[in-house]
Amino acid sequence: MSWRIWAGATGAALLLVTGAVAAVPVSAAPRAATVTCPTVDPATGAVTPAPAPSVDWSGCDLVGANLTSASLLLADLSDANLTAANLTKANFDSADLSGADLTKANLTERHRLLRHPFRRR
Hints:
Keywords: Signal. Residues 1-22 form the signal peptide. By secondary structure, this protein is an all-beta fold. The chain folds into two domains: 1-27; 38-121, Pectate Lyase C-like. It is built from no helices and five strands. The protein has strands at residues 3-7, 12-17, 20-25, 39-40, 47-48. The strands form two sheets. A three-stranded antiparallel sheet has the order 1-2-3, with no helix packed on it. It has a two-stranded antiparallel sheet with strand order 4-5. Strand 2 (12-17) and strand 3 form a beta hairpin. The protein is globular and about 30 Å long. It starts with a strand and ends in a 73-residue tail after the last strand.
């Protein structure tokens, strides 16, 4: 007996069992959560929605963001653009900053920022 399974984009699979063909629903693999990037007010740097622990802002444009004293514990900021962001006293404990751009970011009095690699130009 020979089994062959083909999964299609519609979430169905075709099974070929000794010449018989049947369509069987296939549960889709869990998809990664969609990242919802915040907005940054260009005049004040205010970030909406406000930062919170475990936030996923990977790949987001946070140029000029005011994240002073923000709690970004376990946050995903990988590949985020934090150019000229104010990160004074921000808590990045166990945050992922891999690939983040911190060009001209204010990192004074930072709190546990160096857990993950990041790029500063």
